[in-house]
Each structure stands twice: as structure tokens, then as C-alpha cells.
Amino acid sequence: MTAVEETARPVALLRRRPSPRPPRGSRSATSYGFVALYAALTVAFGILPSLYAVYLAFTTGEGSFAGFANFTKVIGDFRFLPAVGHVAFYLVIWLVSLVVLVTLLAVIVHAIRVRWLSSTLRLVFYLPGALAGASSVLLWLFVLDPTASPVGGLLRALGLSSFVQVIVPAHLPPIFAIIAFWAGAGGWIVIMYGALNNISPDVIEAARIDGAGTLQIAWRIQLPLLRKWISYMGIMSLAAGTQLFVEPQLLSQASNAVVPNDYSLNQLAYQYAFQQNDFNGAAAISLLLLVIALALSAFFVLRGGLFETD
Amino acid sequence: MTTEQVKDSGVRRGDVSGWSVRTIAGVITTVFVLFFLIPLGWLLLASTKTARGLIVDHPFAPGTLGGLAANWDQLFSFGDGEVTTWVGNSALYAVGALVITLVASIPAGYAMALTEFRFRRALLILTLVVMLIPNTALVLPIFLELNMVGLIGTPLSVILPMSFFPFGVYLTYIYFSTSIPRDLLAAARVDGCREFQVFTRIALPLAAPIVALVAFFSFVQSWNNFFLPFVMLPSSDGYPIQVGLTSLLASTPAFNPSSAGTQSIQLPTLALATVISVLPVLIVFLFAQRFLIAGMTAGGTKE
């Protein structure tokens, strides 16, 4: 998923005044006209593909009912568990660094009193978000290749003198986490900054008068008040992270398959569909990923309390 | 110890810890500024260098305009000007999706915010849930669906799925339900406006900021989309630049030794391609940042 999109979503995190009730229901015919195109797109690209994936996942190539055969097949595939492991390892590193560093940087930037400095820092953090998908991965291929890298000295100091040494399998989860953090963290920092602005200055002032230092204020007041936003960031990033595709895909291509092309779950689904022509197997993997994403998202919409559904 | 002294030492202790906190914060900030900026700055410089200069020269020594021109020539002569086609495709897909997104989501957001109809709340909740699903999650199912109706490989196979943009609908919904006074619409109705005219004459002219915001987010998301076109468009004539980058990467001997041949791409040329692939978005980010950040943090400031 792109960084921009991910950072863009919380625009919507409005706590509004109660939604005003429309006066009468008599004008609904025009209303249907207004929502018709969007509703059609929702059906065509939201609901139908989901249902079709369900259908494929539970049928055989010939269209007869297959029960859970497709699921047992893909889960039993020798590539499935390693892919789960890769994605899980990547997610742990990414989520921990995201939660800790984004919160830390947002608190720091928020504490800066000099306006131009604070806004410049936010822009600097945010700017890499313009590079999403293939572009950011390509940029990091350069950075990770010791012969051309701007930080070649650093890589060599770590004992890595060639690209192949940099991208050994054990390094990949942290590498993907770094790429994702580089492109995605800035948007979240900006959002956390907005949330910090939200905390009433009176509360902070009261704590200061009671003798709380900068660290205590951050730890005892700002952090607890950010908790909802941090969990929102965590859940959205978790859902997005399970979809890992473009990073290993490009790295696989750039390394002559030192990085396998079935490194992540989404890649494995892609292999099923396009190498093995097994759409039913591909649908089964897609469905597993979709259910995870749907569950996380539905949980947050219905329970998270950050969204207004009037 | 007098009271005066206690207060004094307290202040001084506070100063010392405040000072060290500030130093640590400064160091952390500097490290991360470098982390975020070095790759970007280096990429811009790299696109002006020669292949040899990229390896031999200091990483932050600028190249020459001649170097940039040479890389430009190499890039745009690759595969009989394929790069131009890819950039054109990106523009076609992103703008096409943008137009349909606006036509679909602005009226829908308006109707959900200011009118009443059956399934309104259901549509709203559905919008939220789908909005929070990563957009890659539905790509393979959509492929399977479009494959059934024979659209794979056509521009519509990417434009239509990109036009489904629930986030834009939600933004519009929030905007109309918080920013447009209902009395205004009621007054228009009293004056004899029909429902459609209320929308086109009253609501739409007031909606310029939200139209711009939705347009921007839609454009950026479509331009940067990789997985969807990667899956939908098998032929290289149809690639957008994001997918085209993979072809360039495959022709770069530095990353793919088997590719050395007439069509080979040097590293600085690949760097230039990366710059070009993000240029439209980068420019918008730079010039519209105040506007964007205001949009992104709207939630944080209005609570």
C-alpha cells in the first residue's frame, strides 16, 4: 500500500458534532441518483470481487464444491509457512519501530517552539512519502548497494561490501521495515503532531506547575492521550504490512533471485495465479489476507470510536 | 538551607535535566533528518552523474548538466521511447481515475451527508470498512473478476478499480456534514430549487476545497499504484511508469548481470527514471504541503 494513502486516511478522523437529521425522506429518489455511480463501483470493485474470491476459494478448477481443500493445499504448501514467518518477522520490526519512533519524533517536534523549524522538520519527515511503491524500493536498492551508496562507508563499516552481502535473507525483514518506515513514517508523524496539538495547553500547564518535567509530561500526559491514535496507526499498519509485495518483488528481480519470488504471502498468491494458473489456490490465499484486513478494519470502525458514523 | 536556596537548586537541577533532554532530542532529530533527507538528496545528484562518476566521485559531489542530458537521452531512447509511453500511461490512468472518482464521490458524499435515503447508514459503514482495507487486498479478486469479463490488459482494468475511492467519499461526507449550513439548502428549496439544482447551484460551488483535496489524494494514489497495474496489464505497452521501472531495473547490468546488452541501462539513468517516476507527486507535495497537512490533520484540530 502506498504511504500517501496510508497517511491520508486519518484525515477522516473527525469527531463531529452530531449529524444533523435531514428534514424529510421524500427526496430519496434524487439521493439514489447521487449515490448511484459510487454504489455501482462499490458493488463492482468491493463486494463482487470479495464474493467471487469466496466462490473460487471453495471450488475446484472445474467449478465443483471443494470444501476447505484449497485452504489445506495452500497452507500445506512448503512455501506457505516460510512466507508467513517472513511477513511476521517484518511486521514485528516495522510496527515496533513505527510506534516508538513516530511517537518520539512527534513529541520532539511538538515541543519545538520555533515555528519555522517545527514546520520544516515536519516537511522533511513527510516528503519521502511522495516516493511510494516501486520508486522508493528502487531508491533503496541504490542506498543498499555499497558500490554506489551514499552511505557506502557505513555499510562497509558493518562488514557489508557487496550488494549480495547486504541482502542475505536474515537482513531482509529489517531492510523492508526501513524502506516502509522511510516512506511512511512522516505522514504518521504529522498526524500525531496534530493529535498532540489537540491536548489542551491548560492540562500541560497545570502539570508543569505541579512540578512535572518535560519527560514526565510526555510520559504521563501526552502518551496516554495519544493511545487511541497509536493503536489506530498500529492496526492500519498491521493490515497494510500483511500485504507485503512490491519490496520483495523488486529485490528478487534485482538480486537474480537471491531473494526468492515467493518471499511474501501476496507473492505466493501471485505465483499461484500466474505461474501455476491455479486461481482457486490464489483466491484461498487472497481470502485469508482479506479476512485479516477486514477483521482489523471492521473492529476499528465499530469499536475504535475514532470514526463518525452518526 | 533557606527556602531561597531550595528553590534555587531546584531550578538549577531542572535546567540541567532540561538541557540534557534537549541535547538528546536534538541528536535524535538530526539523525532522523539525515535519514529522511540523504537518500532523497543523493538521488537527485545521482541522476546528473556518469556511471563511473557515481562510483568513483564523492557521493555528494554534484554531476554535470551534460551528465544529466546524457542520462536523459539514454532513458528516453530505451526501447524506442517506451519511457514516454509509460509516463503517458500513468497520466492517462491517474487522470481518468481522477475524473470518475470526482463524478462518483462528490455527489455520493453530499447525498450521504445532507439527504436521507434507505441504506444510507449501511453505505456509510461499508465505505468506512472498505476504506480501511489495504487497497492491495482486493487486487487479485478484482483480477479474477475482470478476467471473467475479458477486460484484462485494457486501460479500463486499472482506471475503473482506481475510481472506486471510498476515502474520497468519506472526506466529502465529512466536509458537507460539517461545513455547509443546512439552512442554506432549505432556503434554496423554499426559493423553488429542485434537489438536483440545490446540489449544482448551492453545494457544489461551496465544495471547491474538498474537490481539490479528493482530486489530489486520488491522483497520488493512482500514480503511485504498483500492484494493480502490475497484475492487470501484461503487455509493456500498457505499463504505467511505476511498473515500467521494473523493466528498467531488469535491464540494469549493475543489478542484473545477465542483462548486459544493447538495451542496458546505467545506474545514473535508473536514478533519473526514479526521479521522473515521482516528479509529479513530489512537486505537488512541495507546493501544496500546507494545504495537504491542513487536510491530514483536520481531524486532530477540530475535536
What can you see in these coordinates?
- The complex is a heterodimer of chains A (310) and B (303).
- Chain A is mainly α and 310 residues long.
- Among the domains of chain A are: 42-79 and 262-287, no CATH class; 80-130 and 168-259, MetI-like fold, CATH 1.10.3720.
- Chain A is built from 14 helices and no strands.
- Chain A has helices at 3-8, 28-57, 69-76, 80-111, 115-126, 133-144, 152-157, 163-166, 172-197, 201-209, 214-241, 246-254, 265-274, 279-303.
- In chain A, helix 3 crosses helix 14 (279-303), helix 5 (115-126) runs antiparallel to helix 9 (172-197) and helix 13 runs antiparallel to helix 14 (279-303).
- The model of chain A is unreliable at 1-23 (pLDDT under 50).
- Chain B is mainly alpha-helical and 303 residues long.
- Chain B has 2 domains: 14-73; 80-250, MetI-like (MetI-like fold).
- Helices cover 76% and strands 0% of the residues of chain B.
- Chain B contains 16 helices and no strands.
- Chain B has helices at 3-46, 51-56, 65-77, 82-114, 120-132, 139-148, 156-163, 166-179, 182-190, 195-206, 208-224, 227-232, 241-250, 267-287, 289-296, 298-302.
- In chain B, helix 4 (82-114) runs antiparallel to helix 13 and helix 8 (166-179) runs antiparallel to helix 11 (208-224).
- Chain B is globular, with a radius of gyration of 26 Å.
- The two termini of chain B are 48 Å apart.
- Residues 1-14 and 298-303 of chain B have low confidence and may be disordered.
